[in-house]
Amino acid sequence: MYDGALEPKDYTLGIVDNDPLVLELLTHYFVASHAPLHVLWSLNNPEQAWRACNDERTRPQVVLTDIEMPGMSGRELFHRIRTRHPSIVVIGISAFPDSVEESGLVVLPKESTIEAIVHLTGMLLHDESLIRWHQQPIRINPLSPRELQTLDYYSQGKTTLFIAHKMNVGESSVKTFVKRACKKLNVHSRTEAIVACVRNNWI
Q1: Quick check: 151 and 190 in contact, CB under 8 A?
Q2: For the CA atoms of 92, 129, 35, 70, what is the dihedral angle to 10 degrees?
Q3: What is the dihedral of CA 147, 148, 151, 157, to 10 degrees?
Q4: Domains delineated in the chain
Q5: pLDDT digits (tens, 9 = 90+) for 32-63
Protein backbone atom coordinates (compact mmCIF):
# COMPACT_ATOMS: atom_id res chain seq x y z
CA MET A 1 0.00 0.00 0.00
CA TYR A 2 1.26 3.46 -0.88
CA ASP A 3 0.06 6.82 0.41
CA GLY A 4 1.23 8.83 -2.62
CA ALA A 5 -0.02 9.31 -6.15
CA LEU A 6 2.41 6.83 -7.72
CA GLU A 7 2.82 3.14 -7.09
CA PRO A 8 6.28 2.16 -5.77
CA LYS A 9 8.81 0.75 -8.19
CA ASP A 10 9.56 -2.94 -7.76
CA TYR A 11 13.09 -4.08 -6.94
CA THR A 12 14.60 -7.57 -6.85
CA LEU A 13 15.90 -8.90 -3.54
CA GLY A 14 18.38 -11.57 -2.49
CA ILE A 15 18.30 -12.85 1.11
CA VAL A 16 21.26 -14.53 2.84
CA ASP A 17 21.03 -16.17 6.27
CA ASN A 18 22.55 -19.38 7.54
CA ASP A 19 19.55 -19.99 9.83
CA PRO A 20 16.96 -21.92 7.74
CA LEU A 21 14.06 -20.78 9.93
CA VAL A 22 14.95 -17.08 9.67
CA LEU A 23 15.45 -17.49 5.93
CA GLU A 24 12.07 -19.16 5.50
CA LEU A 25 10.24 -16.58 7.62
CA LEU A 26 11.83 -13.58 5.90
CA THR A 27 11.00 -14.98 2.47
CA HIS A 28 7.42 -15.73 3.52
CA TYR A 29 6.85 -12.28 5.02
CA PHE A 30 8.20 -10.45 1.96
CA VAL A 31 5.90 -12.46 -0.31
CA ALA A 32 2.85 -12.29 1.98
CA SER A 33 3.15 -8.53 2.53
CA HIS A 34 3.29 -7.83 -1.24
CA ALA A 35 6.33 -5.66 -0.61
CA PRO A 36 7.93 -3.82 -3.55
CA LEU A 37 11.04 -5.93 -2.89
CA HIS A 38 10.50 -9.20 -4.76
CA VAL A 39 12.55 -12.16 -3.55
CA LEU A 40 14.74 -13.32 -6.42
CA TRP A 41 16.49 -15.91 -4.26
CA SER A 42 17.01 -16.85 -0.61
CA LEU A 43 20.19 -18.72 0.26
CA ASN A 44 21.83 -20.00 3.44
CA ASN A 45 25.30 -20.01 1.92
CA PRO A 46 27.05 -16.64 1.37
CA GLU A 47 29.37 -18.16 -1.24
CA GLN A 48 26.33 -19.13 -3.31
CA ALA A 49 24.91 -15.65 -2.79
CA TRP A 50 28.15 -14.14 -4.07
CA ARG A 51 28.01 -16.31 -7.19
CA ALA A 52 24.38 -15.28 -7.72
CA CYS A 53 25.40 -11.61 -7.54
CA ASN A 54 28.03 -12.18 -10.21
CA ASP A 55 25.55 -13.72 -12.63
CA GLU A 56 23.53 -11.16 -14.59
CA ARG A 57 20.55 -13.52 -14.64
CA THR A 58 20.39 -13.76 -10.83
CA ARG A 59 21.87 -10.43 -9.77
CA PRO A 60 19.46 -8.65 -7.40
CA GLN A 61 19.19 -4.92 -6.88
CA VAL A 62 19.10 -5.33 -3.10
CA VAL A 63 20.79 -7.87 -0.81
CA LEU A 64 19.67 -8.50 2.77
CA THR A 65 22.37 -10.43 4.60
CA ASP A 66 22.98 -11.86 8.03
CA ILE A 67 26.23 -10.61 9.55
CA GLU A 68 27.59 -13.56 11.50
CA MET A 69 27.78 -16.66 9.29
CA PRO A 70 30.27 -19.52 9.09
CA GLY A 71 32.78 -19.23 6.27
CA MET A 72 32.19 -15.92 4.53
CA SER A 73 30.65 -13.37 6.90
CA GLY A 74 28.09 -10.77 5.97
CA ARG A 75 30.82 -8.15 6.27
CA GLU A 76 32.99 -9.87 3.68
CA LEU A 77 30.02 -10.37 1.37
CA PHE A 78 29.22 -6.66 1.69
CA HIS A 79 32.78 -5.64 0.77
CA ARG A 80 32.89 -7.98 -2.21
CA ILE A 81 29.58 -6.69 -3.54
CA ARG A 82 30.47 -3.04 -2.94
CA THR A 83 33.77 -3.50 -4.80
CA ARG A 84 32.47 -5.36 -7.85
CA HIS A 85 28.81 -4.32 -7.98
CA PRO A 86 28.50 -0.91 -6.31
CA SER A 87 24.97 -0.41 -7.65
CA ILE A 88 23.64 -3.23 -5.44
CA VAL A 89 22.26 -2.01 -2.12
CA VAL A 90 23.39 -4.21 0.78
CA ILE A 91 21.61 -4.17 4.14
CA GLY A 92 22.81 -6.19 7.11
CA ILE A 93 20.64 -7.86 9.73
CA SER A 94 21.89 -8.99 13.11
CA ALA A 95 20.65 -10.08 16.52
CA PHE A 96 23.10 -7.50 17.92
CA PRO A 97 23.13 -4.62 15.41
CA ASP A 98 24.67 -2.13 17.84
CA SER A 99 27.81 -4.26 18.07
CA VAL A 100 28.38 -4.20 14.31
CA GLU A 101 30.65 -1.39 13.20
CA GLU A 102 31.28 -1.52 9.48
CA SER A 103 31.82 1.61 7.41
CA GLY A 104 29.15 1.99 4.73
CA LEU A 105 27.04 -0.95 5.93
CA VAL A 106 23.69 -0.23 7.56
CA VAL A 107 22.62 -3.00 9.95
CA LEU A 108 19.08 -3.57 11.21
CA PRO A 109 17.87 -5.81 14.06
CA LYS A 110 16.69 -9.23 12.92
CA GLU A 111 13.25 -8.50 14.34
CA SER A 112 12.81 -5.49 12.02
CA THR A 113 9.51 -5.30 10.16
CA ILE A 114 9.29 -5.66 6.39
CA GLU A 115 8.12 -2.06 6.31
CA ALA A 116 11.29 -0.89 8.09
CA ILE A 117 13.47 -2.79 5.61
CA VAL A 118 11.58 -1.33 2.64
CA HIS A 119 11.84 2.21 4.06
CA LEU A 120 15.58 1.87 4.63
CA THR A 121 15.99 0.54 1.09
CA GLY A 122 14.12 3.59 -0.17
CA MET A 123 16.46 5.91 1.71
CA LEU A 124 19.55 4.15 0.36
CA LEU A 125 18.16 4.18 -3.19
CA HIS A 126 16.75 7.71 -2.85
CA ASP A 127 13.36 6.33 -3.89
CA GLU A 128 10.55 8.27 -2.22
CA SER A 129 7.94 5.70 -3.25
CA LEU A 130 9.60 3.04 -1.08
CA ILE A 131 9.88 5.41 1.85
CA ARG A 132 6.13 6.04 1.62
CA TRP A 133 5.18 2.37 1.31
CA HIS A 134 3.11 0.88 4.13
CA GLN A 135 2.75 -2.80 4.85
CA GLN A 136 -0.75 -4.18 4.62
CA PRO A 137 -1.75 -6.36 7.58
CA ILE A 138 -1.19 -10.03 6.79
CA ARG A 139 -4.53 -11.75 7.08
CA ILE A 140 -4.60 -14.72 9.44
CA ASN A 141 -5.85 -17.94 7.87
CA PRO A 142 -9.30 -18.64 9.39
CA LEU A 143 -9.80 -21.98 7.65
CA SER A 144 -9.53 -25.43 9.16
CA PRO A 145 -6.95 -27.85 7.69
CA ARG A 146 -9.71 -29.80 5.89
CA GLU A 147 -11.30 -26.69 4.42
CA LEU A 148 -7.92 -25.52 3.19
CA GLN A 149 -7.04 -28.94 1.79
CA THR A 150 -10.35 -29.09 -0.07
CA LEU A 151 -9.78 -25.73 -1.74
CA ASP A 152 -6.21 -26.70 -2.55
CA TYR A 153 -7.44 -29.81 -4.37
CA TYR A 154 -10.03 -27.79 -6.28
CA SER A 155 -7.35 -25.26 -7.27
CA GLN A 156 -5.48 -28.17 -8.88
CA GLY A 157 -8.55 -29.04 -10.96
CA LYS A 158 -9.54 -32.13 -8.97
CA THR A 159 -13.15 -33.32 -8.95
CA THR A 160 -15.41 -33.56 -5.92
CA LEU A 161 -15.37 -37.36 -6.20
CA PHE A 162 -11.57 -37.42 -6.29
CA ILE A 163 -11.32 -35.12 -3.26
CA ALA A 164 -13.84 -37.17 -1.28
CA HIS A 165 -11.84 -40.34 -2.00
CA LYS A 166 -8.52 -38.70 -1.08
CA MET A 167 -9.88 -37.27 2.17
CA ASN A 168 -11.85 -40.41 2.99
CA VAL A 169 -15.15 -38.55 3.35
CA GLY A 170 -18.41 -38.34 1.42
CA GLU A 171 -18.97 -35.88 -1.41
CA SER A 172 -21.48 -34.02 0.77
CA SER A 173 -18.73 -33.42 3.34
CA VAL A 174 -16.48 -31.95 0.66
CA LYS A 175 -19.24 -29.53 -0.33
CA THR A 176 -19.74 -28.65 3.34
CA PHE A 177 -16.03 -27.81 3.70
CA VAL A 178 -16.34 -25.42 0.76
CA LYS A 179 -19.52 -23.85 2.13
CA ARG A 180 -17.88 -23.24 5.51
CA ALA A 181 -14.77 -21.80 3.87
CA CYS A 182 -16.85 -19.38 1.79
CA LYS A 183 -18.68 -18.20 4.90
CA LYS A 184 -15.44 -17.64 6.83
CA LEU A 185 -13.87 -15.76 3.92
CA ASN A 186 -17.04 -13.76 3.23
CA VAL A 187 -17.16 -14.81 -0.43
CA HIS A 188 -19.95 -16.25 -2.54
CA SER A 189 -18.35 -18.97 -4.61
CA ARG A 190 -15.72 -21.68 -4.55
CA THR A 191 -13.69 -19.79 -7.14
CA GLU A 192 -13.66 -16.64 -5.00
CA ALA A 193 -12.55 -18.71 -2.01
CA ILE A 194 -9.67 -20.20 -4.00
CA VAL A 195 -8.61 -16.75 -5.22
CA ALA A 196 -8.62 -15.44 -1.63
CA CYS A 197 -6.43 -18.34 -0.51
CA VAL A 198 -3.96 -17.86 -3.35
CA ARG A 199 -3.72 -14.11 -2.74
CA ASN A 200 -2.94 -14.73 0.93
CA ASN A 201 -0.44 -17.50 0.12
CA TRP A 202 -2.44 -20.12 2.04
CA ILE A 203 -2.38 -22.57 -0.87
Answers
A1: yes
A2: -10
A3: -130
A4: 11-131 (3.40.50.2300), 145-199 (1.10.10.10)
A5: 778 999 999 999 999 999 999 999 999 999 99
